[in-house]
Model the fold of this input.
Amino acid sequence: MDVDTKLTIDYILEHCHQIMTFFCLRSEFNQSDISVMI
Done:
């Protein structure tokens, strides 16, 4: 595995983690109170 490939995989993993965190937070908001989002 070359360096560029490893960097790309690391970036994707980090980005996916941020996306999953966003969805987790959003689902928590929806469960608690939807008016919080408005």
Observations:
- The helical segments are 3-32.
- The radius of gyration is 16 Å.
